[in-house]
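Progress note, project year one: complex with zinc ion.
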Amino acid sequence: AFPNGYQDYHDFAELTSALQRAADDHPGLAALSTIGTSVEGRNLWLMSITRAPAGSPEVLFTCQQHAREHLTREMCLRIVNRFTDGYGSDPAVTRLVDSRIIRVIPSVNPDGAEYDHATGSFRGWRKNRQGQGTDLNRNWGHQWGCCGGSSSSPSSDTYRGTGAFSAIETQRVRNYVASRVVGGEQRITAHIDFHTYSELILWPYGYTYSDTGPGLSAQDAAAFRALGTQMAQTNGYTPQQSSDLYITDGSINDWMWAAHGIYSYTFEMYPRSGGLNGFYPIDDVIGRETARNDAAVDLLLSYADCVPRVIGASC
Ligand SMILES: CC(C)C[C@H](NS(N)(=O)=O)C(=O)O
Ligand SMILES: [Zn+2]
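Model obtained:
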């Protein structure tokens, strides 16, 4: 359990129960599976939610690459609960579940998350629990370690690991995404990786300041920006290219786009600012700050059949 003032946050056992309950309560709509285990043997849960025909566009939501960003796990749980409980009653939810395949990984880094609160007070832990810890969001395989956007020092909070995908958890997600290539086509078309904090919507590339690059054309950039801007209008976050914040190399967004052509965003959630305490908003804000992203999630899902439609292009 979490410390006082934070008890509504789900620890790993509570997360597992909540996911199992959602799947049990919604057979034929929600299915719980695992994409493998973490370094310390915890399941990396995957909840799939759909009533759509096989072959429908798939959208992936990943949460908690960074351990201390506990609000993101609650964001992924919000997506699970909204698209299961709301099916058949909420028209927007029903329309999307009938036409899309929704995939949710509520915690990419369950070991780091447990370690962060295990003592009853927060450690400010970010990385996974492999050796001195790897920053999972610097361990992905596109332009890994290229550009000063990560550290080679194992003690650093942005340690990139010993090589691309040296972390068990990034390997599991990589392998899962690769498994969604069916008949030579990647079925996942769009993705959000949830982080805290700063209230931003970010898109590739992170490894370069340039707004285009190898594998990312001016039209691609225009589509990313247009959809990012539309999503930001619904939640009040600031939309910008990832590198406008700072250069990162080996990030999930760059790999999802470059390796699989997935329109991949990072959402930095609430609060807008706050030092180390910014990672630990009291549990009173969970409902408001997760529901704040409902409309953006619906926008991404609605464009998932052809994201370039957002700038009037066809697929
Ligand atoms: C997605 C990138 C550009 C920002 C992110 N910030 S965070 N969530 O670690 O504070 C990070 O450094 O990985
Ligand atoms: Zn983060």
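The first strand starts at residue 30 and ends at 37.
The beta strands are 30-37, 43-49, 58-63, 101-105, 181-182, 185-186, 188-196, 200-203, 238-241, 263-269.
No further modelling is planned for this target in the current period.
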